[in-house]
């Protein structure tokens, strides 16, 4: 019996060894390769067809890199969510940071103009969907150069559809575009079913690190704490003190604000993550080191630029002056007791402060990911976060629970904005917080009926090729029916002409440069064209149009430069400034320069085009009047752009 038991043990051990060797064999032969790797192997083509495949792969990689780099520079968004209140003097922050003109990055945390705290951290699924959607719409650009290969004898059939999928991993991004392309050359044929590229950028790793940073900031307020330290340490920012002085301390609020901007810029710029490649070696106390580990071989940067918004409110203050309190002058009792010895001057200021910080991570190859957050101090105290940080991005289970378990039946209709005819085959999605669930498509009657998650403050998203996407607020815990109208895209031939406002004559644009920006005030669609454009794509609606005409001015502005003298009224220095003003004058000089082109005309106006179905051409007019003869007339012309549409000879765009 004992021998039989020993044999059984040997058999079991042998089976385990065989299983281990079998597993290792599967690894070596690629049996356990990822789905992407298996598809990559299947995408191999015969050598004769390789030139076409190399071109398509290179083009796809270029498109994917554009999408990834753009998304990474905008805080994980290709299209930053539209803010209800646009950026303005009254709302200098909006929901995104204007890093430089024309380049914005989303705030992951910010306080809206009405004081409500908000966060807009994209999920990894959101980013994957955005990149895939970008490739769906732009992959067709890769077809343009296929004519070269057709001229070389290749037969190529362009696919009827494109469907992209994207996977963001720690060190790379996997892209698969399903676009079957038939290729034939010298009796060798193959249908390239899928096109695959792997982009070696650490988007996933940098994104996870960025989430750690914002989580630490929302829970520890390390930016606010260091801002408070700036107020205590730097004498340029009066905070709280008791000084031996008989003079009342007075500061100019604008000067304090300007100094604070510079101080914040220098101190925020010194911050670094732990283990960052650009760690501050002179920070012996680790004061500027944030308690978040940087990704391997990466640099971390925190930035505030003095040109960015900086809102500061101080009390007590009187107008633009911040006033200390001279104790010996304010209290007769103290004055008698201490006046013979010394004077005391006391001040304690209470600040409300908001300013943005840009957080960036960069690897050794120059790839970077960045997002913005807002520093908020309220009554000298760091913000009390009303937002509990939730790691939505890692919770695929949460998204699965939300999307996979619909609890409400909804009815959504999609209709053409002009004809009000139903739109069949439109994609219907539902967005609840940071999670977007695909629901299905509308039927031939333009109606979708199906399940959706119960959600307060959600929205229905409708998308259909040939239409501008639309959305509609829908709280599914209150109502279950929604109708959405989609405006159709119309491609129109464009004819740009030059209009003389003096006599109404119309001429070719000649050597003038003309630009038009059409902004649809109903849905935010924007089209920009120039005098060289041959067509324009519009959707029906009401447009705000800005046009500018540039040309050679009728004078030489480079003859030695120019200058003028400007005088302003300012408070007098010292205590007299509380009661009297004085005039300060200064000279403003222009260095010598050459001016080849200048704005010599244009117009700002609104135009209705709620029906475009019967038209194929649009004619637009760049408005000009007198050619300027000196700088003052150039300024007058620029200032008149907003009123040129009132001229009797002005012409709006004409459809034909």
Structural overview:
- It is built from twelve helices and 37 strands.
- The protein starts with a helix and ends with a strand.
- Helices cover 24% and strands 37% of the residues.
- The protein has 656 residues and is an alpha+beta fold.
- Among the domains are: 162 residues, no CATH class; 85 residues, Sandwich (Immunoglobulin-like), CATH 2.60.40; 130 residues, no CATH class.
Structure summarized in a few sentences:
The protein has 656 residues and is α+β, with helices and mostly antiparallel strands. Among the domains are: 221-382, no CATH class; 402-486, Immunoglobulin-like (Sandwich), CATH 2.60.40.10; 490-557 and 594-655, no CATH class. It is built from twelve helices and 37 strands.
Protein topology:
Elements: H1 2-29, H2 35-42, H3 50-73, E1 96-100, E2 103-111, E3 117-119, H4 124-138, H5 146-151, E4 155-157, E5 163-168, E6 173-185, E7 188-199, H6 203-220, H7 222-233, E8 240-244, E9 250-252, H8 253-268, E10 272-274, E11 289-293, E12 298-303, E13 311-315, E14 321-323, E15 325-326, H9 327-330, H10 332-338, E16 344-348, E17 350-363, E18 368-378, E19 381-382, H11 396-404, E20 408-416, E21 427-432, E22 435-441, E23 447-452, E24 459-463, E25 470-473, E26 481-486, E27 490-500, E28 506-507, E29 513-520, E30 526-530, E31 535-538, E32 541-551, E33 562-571, E34 581-590, E35 598-609, E36 617-624, H12 631-640, E37 654-655
Parallel strand pairs: 2-18, 10-11, 20-26, 27-36
Antiparallel strand pairs: 1-2, 2-3, 4-6, 5-6, 6-7, 8-16, 9-14, 12-17, 13-17, 15-16, 17-18, 18-19, 20-23, 21-22, 21-24, 24-25, 27-28, 27-31, 29-30, 29-32, 32-35, 33-34, 36-37
Helix pairs in contact: 3-4, 7-8
């Amino acid at each position: 019996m004992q021998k039989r038991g020993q044999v059984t043990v040997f058999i079991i051990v042998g089976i385990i060894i065989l299983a281990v060797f079998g597993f290792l064999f599967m690894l070596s032969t690629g049996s356990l390769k990822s789905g992407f790797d298996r598809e990559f192997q299947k995408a191999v083509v015969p050598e004769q067809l390789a030139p076409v495949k190399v071109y398509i792969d290179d083009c796809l990689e270029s498109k994917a890199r554009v999408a990834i780099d753009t998304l990474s520079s905008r805080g994980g968004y290709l299209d930053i969510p539209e803010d209800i209140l646009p950026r303005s003097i009254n709302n200098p922050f909006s929901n995104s940071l204007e890093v430089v003109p024309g380049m914005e990055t989303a705030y992951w945390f910010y306080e809206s103009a009405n004081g409500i705290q908000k966060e807009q951290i994209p999920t990894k699924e959101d980013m994957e969907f955005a990149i895939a959607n970008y490739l769906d719409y732009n992959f067709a650009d890769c077809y343009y150069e296929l004519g070269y290969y057709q001229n070389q004898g290749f037969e190529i059939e362009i696919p009827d559809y494109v469907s992209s999928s994207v996977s963001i991993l720690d060190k790379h991004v996997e892209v698969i575009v399903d676009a079957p392309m038939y290729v034939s050359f010298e009796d060798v044929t193959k249908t390239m079913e899928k096109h695959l590229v792997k982009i070696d950028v650490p988007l996933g790793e940098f994104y996870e690190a960025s989430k750690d940073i914002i989580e630490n900031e929302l829970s520890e307020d390390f930016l606010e704490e260091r801002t408070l330290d700036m107020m205590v340490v730097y004498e340029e920012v009066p905070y709280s003190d008791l000084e031996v002085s008989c003079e009342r301390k007075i500061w100019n609020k604008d000067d304090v604000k300007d100094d604070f901007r510079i101080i914040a810029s220098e101190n925020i710029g010194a911050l670094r993550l732990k283990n960052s490649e650009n760690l501050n070696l002179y920070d012996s106390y680790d004061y500027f080191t944030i308690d978040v580990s940087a990704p391997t071989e990466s640099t971390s940067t925190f930035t505030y630029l003095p040109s960015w918004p900086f809102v500061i409110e101080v009390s007590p203050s009187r107008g633009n002056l911040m006033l200390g309190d001279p104790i010996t002058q304010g209290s007769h009792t103290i004055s008698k007791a201490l006046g013979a010895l010394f004077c005391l001057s006391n001040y304690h200021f209470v600040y409300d402060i908001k300013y943005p910080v840009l957080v960036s991570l960069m690897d050794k190859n120059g790839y970077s990911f960045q997002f913005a957050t807002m520093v908020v101090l309220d009554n000298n105290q760091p913000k009390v976060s009303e937002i509990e940080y939730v790691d939505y991005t890692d919770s695929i289970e949460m998204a699965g629970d939300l999307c996979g378990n619909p609890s409400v039946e909804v009815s959504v209709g999609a209709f053409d904005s002009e004809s009000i005819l139903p739109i069949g085959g439109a994609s219907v999605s539902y967005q609840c917080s940071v999670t977007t669930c695909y629901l299905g498509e509308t039927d031939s009657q333009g109606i979708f009926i199906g399940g959706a998650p119960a959600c307060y403050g959600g929205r229905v998203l409708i998308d259909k090729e040939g239409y501008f996407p639309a959305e509609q607020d829908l709280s599914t815990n209150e109502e279950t029916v929604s109708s959405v109208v989609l405006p159709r895209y119309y491609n129109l031939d464009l004819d740009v002409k030059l209009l003389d406002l003096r006599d109404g004559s119309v001429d070719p644009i000649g050597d003038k440069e003309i630009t038009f920006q059409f902004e649809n005030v109903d849905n935010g669609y924007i089209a920009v064209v120039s005098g060289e454009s041959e067509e324009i794509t519009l959707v029906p609606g009401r447009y705000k149009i800005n046009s500018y005409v540039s040309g050679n001015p009728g004078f030489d502005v480079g003859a030695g430069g120019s200058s003028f003298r400007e005088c302003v009224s300012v408070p007098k220095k010292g205590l007299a400034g509380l009661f009297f003003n004085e005039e300060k004058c200064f000279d403003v000089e222009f260095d010598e320069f050459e001016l080849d082109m200048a704005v010599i005309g244009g117009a700002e106006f609104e135009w209705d085009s709620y029906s475009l179905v019967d038209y194929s051409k649009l004619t637009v007019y760049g408005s000009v009047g007198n050619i300027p003869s000196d700088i003052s007339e150039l300024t007058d012309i620029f200032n008149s752009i907003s009123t040129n549409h009132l001229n009797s000879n002005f012409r709006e765009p004409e459809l034909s």
